[in-house]
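dumping this here before i forget
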Amino acid sequence: MQSIISGQSHTSHTPRDRRSLLPIAPVERGKVRDENYKSSLGAAGGLFRKRLDSAPWAPLKIASGCDRRCSFCAIPYFRGSFISRRPTEVLKEAEWLAQNGVSELFLVSENTTSYGKDLGDLMLMEKILHEFGEIEGVERVRLSYLQPAEMRPTLLQAMISTDKVAPYFDLSFQHVSPTLLRRMRRFGDSEKFLHLITQIRALSPEAGIRSNFIVGFPGETQEDFDALAEFITQAQLDAIGIFGYSDEDKTEALDLSDKVDLELISERVESLSSLADEMVSLRAASRIGQHVRVLIEDAENQEGRAAHQGPEVDGTTSFVGTSFRVGDYVDGVVTQSLGVDLVAVVA
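structure:
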C-alpha cells in the first residue's frame, strides 16, 4: 500500500501451491512453521482480541491444511499441507474462550483425525482431550471432521470415555462405492463404514453420527447410486448432507472422464435428499424417551442442542413453557420429534 501511495508500480501477486510452503515430511513442518511463520502476538492469537458474538459455543481451530489428495477437493492447494497447532497454543485459546462466555468448544480442522502427526505423535488428541474439559467454564467438547479411513480404536474410545466430550462423530464418508471412492482418492466401502458405525454404537448407543455424500461424481453408475441409497437406509445417521458433484478448479476430478449429466445429477440429489430426510426423521423419532442434556442457544424459542446435535447444521431440541436463558444446560427427556428436531420436557 505504501509503495502505491508513493507512486511506485504495483507488483501483482503470483499464486503458489501452498503445499510447497512446508516440508513434505509432517514431522519436519513444526520447526519450519515456528521459524518462518510463528505469530509475534503469541499463543492467544492477538493482543486485542474480541469475540464477535455472544453464542455459548465457539469453533476452536486445532490445525490447518490437509495431506489427503481427494480428487474433488482443492483445499490442499489453497490451504497447504496439514499442520497442527501446538497443544499449549490451542489450550490457551480454549481458556480465553471459556473466560469470554463459551462453554462448548467445537474443535475444527480439515482433518481432525490427523492432529499431532506433524508434532511426532499421531495419538496426541487422545492424550490432551481431557484437558479441554478440565478448563473452568467448559461443559462440552465436540470434535469435527473425522476422516473415516483414519479413525482408530484409541480415538474412538477416548471420545466416548472422556468426561465432557460429546459422543458426536462427524464422519465424511462421501460415497460407499469402492470404485468411486478410489476415483475420489479415498478408501472404504459400505461394509467397512457400517462396521465403524456398529463399533461406535456398541460403545455409545445414543451417539450422534453425521455424514456428507457426493452424488454424481464422474463415473457414478445407477448401481453405485443404488448402493449409496441402501447404505443410507441401513446406517441410521442423525444428520446427512447430500451434494451434487460439480467441477472445481485445481482438482484432479476436473479432468476425469465419464462425467454424469447435470440433469441426472439433479434428479439423484433430489431422490437421495428425500430418502435422507426420511431416514434422519426416523432416527430422531427413535430418541423419544431418551435423556438429553441441552445447551440453550435461543431463549425466545427455548431451543438448543443435545450432545448428539452439532451447531448450525444438525437438528435442535426445544422445550415448551419454560424460561431458560442462553447458555443454560438443561437435563430433559425427549417426548416428540418433528423431522430431525426434538421436543423435550425437563427431567
